[in-house]
Amino acid sequence: MAVLARESVWEIQVEDIIAAGLPPTEARDFHSALRSVAGAGWRMGMEAEVWRAVAAARLLRPDHPHALHQLVYYSVYAKWDLAERGPPPYWFPSSAQSRLTNLARLMEANGPKLLGSSYVDPITSFSLFQKYSVDHPEVYWSIVIKELSIKFHREPKSIFDTSDKFQYGGAWLPGAVLSIAECCLFPSNSPRKTDEDLAILWMNEDPDDSPVRSLSQRELRDQVMMVSNALDTLFTKGDAIAIDMPMTSIAVIIYLAIILAGYVVVSIADSFAAKEIATRMRISKAKGIFTQDFIIRGGRKFPLYSRVIEGSNCQTIVVPSSGDDVALTLRSHDLSWRDFLSRVAGLPRPCDYSPVYRPANAVINILFSSGTTGEPKAIPWTQISSIRSSADVWAHLDIQAGDIFCWPTNLGWVLGPILLNSCFLNGATLALYHGSPLGCGFGKFVQNASVTILGAVPSLVKFWKSSKCMDGLDWTKIRVFGSTGEASDIDDDLWLSSRAFYKPIIECCGGTELSSSYIQGSLLQPQAFGAFSTPSMSAGFVILDEQGIPYPDDKPCAGEVGLFPKFMGASDMLLNADHKKVYFDGMPSYRGMILRRHGDIIQRTVGGYYIVLGRVDDTMNLGGIKTSAVEIERVCNRADENVLETAAVGFRSRAGGPEELVLFAVLKTGMAKQETSLRAKFQRAIQKELNPLFKVSLVKVVPEFPRTATNKLLRRVLRDELSKGSTLSKL
């Protein structure tokens, strides 16, 4: 690794600390403090205890150079044996703090009764309780649903119906009737929040530092009800209505209003081209669409309305991106936001609205897969999906009343509805930045809004670290980070966690069709960078070998994941594909259950952590050894300090022969290509850390990688370009 590190923390010298960026006087003081905290207790095998002491003492501050954080962390763990001990932990739960978490409170109240004499305390008994939640989901969910702001118009007959009429899994909350939007809007459902509490905080992107604005719970509800009334003047109950706009406060109001009034939201990401918008409108049979005239990012205007009308002839309601009215001419049958609201101008303010109550399994939202391999799958979300997503954030990210939760995303992706529901069903405040998260403006919003839970995709964290755009900002009010969307880089996570005195980063991996994650982190377990520490609460799975046979649960291994079908909130239908064929056909049985396909290759390490090695399609066979692209990329990303990121693909020429390893690299700004020297560095790193038989056939430096709208790397596109014999210059 191209960072300054010693063979142990004891070997760090004052000169090393100066080289890492501290002035001499401060370096001497730091060195003395470091030896006092960590040095006396240092011996082989005590690395985790030493790092825990260093982090607890807050010797490393967010304003210290990242090189200093690297020096200490990598020196502490220099002789840590990954093969023998698994990923090294960087965050540790304390007994006192753990008891303040949602899940610990639930375990303390119910653990002795459910687990009997096996129950010790929330930290010791966490894994046992997680397994109990898998084996007894009806018990777990009957308890957890009471923790959320869920008010049933008609109570469910049971939590889970597993009668023979259900081929896979069963039916959740049969007989239940509710309005999940009402649950989000009325604090009377829970003592966690009052009408005067903050529901939404937001800030507009502005070079002159726009103020942080807010909506109280009462103000949010009043605006949602006004929009619901206006919707009834244009649409028929049950209609699908699309939203294609940035995730602004108005977009959130529209989303809740559509569901409150008994319609179905069609989620479309604002990054899509006209053709992709048209595809989603066609599949969902949407009767109308909300959009903006423009998207404002980095001081620039990008057209959105023009893309929407190119892809759809449906009635379009256009929200202004700035000012009081839209800044363009609309089609004759379209409406501006102002004209749309004027349709209920005669109603009293605040106006009232009676929620439309529907069965728990009624569809409220149509979401789409990223569509990287053909037509995107249209995935219906039900009210149960909203409950599941909120409960997982409650259990794993520990969202609580009073938290301020920010995660740059869009209602077109599953994280948008998850974020919205998680805040409003848990009494937290939703924090939205109306602009690009790539600059310091977003960082200032996180600081000024006092964000306590911050989520990001790993590529965004990588940009923040490399650009240094967040330097000088105070993120120390953050108590938990979240990460999802792709594999995390260890050094990027080191940077992110250090911004808040090494708070935990909860890794999450799941999918739109699951409405949540199947593996995550937990505040009741030690956390390791870039790794997951547990299956999600009530989620069970096995890891399959190449013959489809499950490995033992306690064995380190790697293979395709097979999910247990009893997964609350998971899809049971697709609008434009055969659900059974996509998720169940060809999957093996386990303990009388047909496993559910998800498509991830995961590794269970020594120590019980999990690492996602990529999708089934992102594996390759090198010299008869099956390996994953992510595993190779993790090594190569650390091989040269000038490398921003790498992408590994397996390539077989038209003439046949064995699969060859090709590495693509994106370099930091201003760095020369040097493909030959990079190939040698990558080769050495792979041979040392993975397998001496793996050979790098080609390295190609490119300006950027092709990605989906959710930032997932499209290795398939890189592989296709190789197959075409392209020079790759266009990549």
> Could you state the CATH homologous superfamily of the largest domain?
ANL, N-terminal domain
End-to-end distance, in Å? 27 Å
Which stretches are poorly predicted, pLDDT < 50 over at least 5 residues?
Answer: 726-731
CATH hierarchy, class of the largest domain: Alpha Beta
Give the tags.
7-stranded mixed sheet; 731 residues; Rossmann fold; alpha/beta; 24 helices; GMP Synthetase, Chain A, domain 3; disordered C terminus
Could you describe the 3D structure shown?
- The chain is an alpha/beta fold and 731 residues long.
- It has three domains: 9-80, no CATH class; 178-601, ANL, N-terminal domain (Rossmann fold, 3-Layer(aba) Sandwich); 623-723, ANL, C-terminal domain (GMP Synthetase, Chain A, domain 3, 2-Layer Sandwich), CATH 3.30.300.30.
- Strands 6-5-18-17-19-20-21-22-24 form a nine-stranded mixed β-sheet, sandwiched between helices.
- α17 (415-426) links the parallel β17 and β18 (429-434).
- α2 packs across α3 (47-57) and α8 (126-135) packs across α9 (137-147).
- The chain is globular, with a radius of gyration of 26 Å.
- Mean pLDDT is 91; it is low at 726-731.
